[in-house]
Amino acid sequence: MRRRISTGSEFERDFAYSRAVVQGEWCFVSGTTGYDYATMTMPEGAAAQAEAALATIGRTLREAGFAFEDVVRSVVYLVDPADHAAIAPALRAALGEIRPANTTVVTALIRPEMRVEIEVTALRRA
């Protein structure tokens, strides 16, 4: 059975997606930026945005019945490769002991204030 998780973000509504989809033992969390979805404000700088994105991802995983410890894959999208070192502390805080498979991509994001976007895939532990 498929279960959808939403933060109530206008992006989810406008672009027809879910923050996460749970399918069986898997949880697929969409690319998440640093927005506070209640106020639609974005912190400045890649480090603060990564922390905020990971906080949203953590809440989403919990709502779905998962935890960061269940994350098996992460993808990080950066606008500027120079921000890679700046986001490392936030990634280590959330995923350091878990060490999921990861890909980091340098690309443009859909809004100019966005510096980083993070997505994860989790598999429920037996």
Biggest beta-sheet profile: 6 strands, mixed
Average pLDDT, all residues: 95
Tell me the strand percentage band. 25-35%
CATH topology: 60s Ribosomal Protein L30, Chain: A
Q: How does CATH name the architecture?
A: 2-Layer Sandwich
CATH superfamily: RutC-like
Label the structural class. Answer: alpha+beta
Total number of helices: 3
- N→C terminal distance: 18 Å
CA-atom Rg in angstroms: 14 Å
The top-level CATH class is Alpha Beta
Strand/helix succession: EHEEHEHEE
The 3D shape can be described as globular
Unreliably modeled segments = none
Total domain count: 1
Residues in helices, as a percent range: 25-40%
The total strand number stands at 6
Order of strands, main sheet, comes to: 1-2-3-6-4-5
Index terms:
single chain, 126 residues, alpha+beta, 60s Ribosomal Protein L30, Chain: A, 6-stranded mixed beta sheet, 3 helices, 6 strands, 29% helix
Question: What's the quick description here?
Answer:
This protein has helices at 10-14, 46-64, 84-95, and strands spanning 2-5, 20-23, 26-32, 71-78, 101-106, 116-123.
Descriptive account of the structure:
With 126 residues, this protein is α+β, with helices and mostly antiparallel strands. It has one domain (2-123): 60s Ribosomal Protein L30, Chain: A (2-Layer Sandwich), CATH 3.30.1330.40. 29% of the residues lie in helices and 29% in strands. The chain has three helices and six strands; from the N terminus they run βαββαβαββ. Strands 1-2-3-6-4-5 form a six-stranded mixed sheet, with helices on one face. The longest helix has 19 residues, at 46-64. It is globular and about 40 Å long.
